Hints:
By secondary structure, this protein is mainly β. It has one helix at about 1-20, and strands at about 25-30, 35-40, 50-55, 65-70, 75-80, 85, 100, 110-115, 120-125, 130-135, 145, 155-160.
Amino acid sequence: xxxxxxxxxxxxxxxxxxxxxxxxxxxxxxxxxxxxxxxxxxxxxxxxxxxxxxxxxxxxxxxxxxxxxxxxxxxxxxxxxxxxxxxxxxxxxxxxxxxxxxxxxxxxxxxxxxxxxxxxxxxxxxxxxxxxxxxxxxxxxxxxxxxxxxxxxxxxxxxxxxxxx
Length: 165
């Protein structure tokens, strides 16, 4: 009886950890409702440039390199600007827009990818209850942080891409 219990426990743990594979590589981060991606506004390189929704194209400015910082937690480096994004206001609060900044070790640049049942993700700012949210479905609309809602404007999928331009 004891051996059976440990066998079942081992199978359970293997199945749990096998599904928690880290994200590696380069991806577009695409909203599941709009089909639009995260990108720096006008592909600008300046610090403080806002992060917006933009129609899917396989461009470097819409491609993010996933750099692990912990379990299911990543810093995203834009292939075009070599920068990442963080809340415009720190500490962040609901409604805060995201902006581009140089990469640092700040927790405000670390994002937890939480799997949804349909293989999409909720993306939460580490250490908070704030999630990346499309403010609207319009091109160049701001990306903001909001508390978790049951709205698809908070669901994102990863589209693998390796753009040359």
